[in-house]
Design goal:
Length: 409
Amino acid sequence: MRRSAPLDRRIQAGAAHLTLAVRDGEHSWGELGARIAELEARRFVLVTDGTAPGDQLARVRALAGARAPTVLHELRARPRTTAAATDGRTDADTLPDGTVIAIGGERACAVPAAVRVPTDLAAACGPALTLHRPVPAALAWVRSDRLAAAPAARTRAGLVAVVRHVLAVCPAHFPALAGLLSPGARHDARTLTALLALCADARSALVCFDPDETGPALALGYGRSLAAAVRATLGPALAPGDADADADALGLLLAAAVAARLGLAARPTGRAHRDLLARNGSATALPAGADLDRLAAAAVATTRPGLLLLADLGRPYCADGRLLTPVDGAVLRAAVGDLADRADRVAVPHSRAAGSGPVAPRDRGDGRPAAGREQDGTGSPCGRDGGRSTVETRSGPAGTADQQKEFPS
């Protein structure tokens, strides 16, 4: 496995800021110990959600315990609801007093913490990068080599989070991501570091001007409320081991179907959604026998006061200065039906099947693969040089970043 170069990113939102530090190798634990020591805490509260590998949890606990008394607080399991999976406010209310260090998945990293150690890609791309108040400064410390060694199902779920960023915030990365994704979800530390940089840069570009995440930064949660409805109502019917990834994927597809039903998109974006998700081996249709009425009712409950929808890739629909579009039950029920109808019309590469490979690009009817806008629904430039795709990052609604990112192919 190729070693990953260290990555540092700073995300600023008003007076609050967060530092993302991506490292690899066992030697990097010493740096985390030094960062913990800088907090000069009198007491640490180590928060976990039960998903952190035992050795990583023990190591972080030892580093904290060497500096101050440390108590372990494991978040209790809770029933599936239609609440957003990364809303840590309720969990925060139950924490003991002390400086919080969070380690684990999305639920642990959603708790306001001075230090977050995400142990899966979904947490590292999402809640670990959120500036949770009242913590004025935070550190998200990630071991990219450990992410690369995680089970494929957990990596696949994190890649859906990357897909969300590309669809809603930075579509210039579409071609490179399409070439990278595969149902096997096996990527080296260097590739995962580049994907973390993409998500951090996208968030930084948005929250810099929208620290409360009530305006353009709402795009960072694109499809999540609908995913919560899918998770709550269809969880047991989703593929074992991939339920979280498939629920998030279906949330994105439902959002695209709603936009199409309302006629909001300047051009259809659903195919672009399906292409990336199919390449990732994620669900692109509701499971057979799904209770569509129950799902539609749950979707109605989660979408008040409205949904963030896309007028185009990377361009949220805005009407009268509002980015949340009210959607009535009839439209949601029709969108659910559209997704169910695809079950017998769309070939889905099953992520759990041995030997699955990437989905081939659709052809144009003449035996040759489509390219550019025909293939992926974007007009983003993507050059190839020496086996790597170089893509210009245009994070944010106005395309504000000018870094160049490389994705190994």
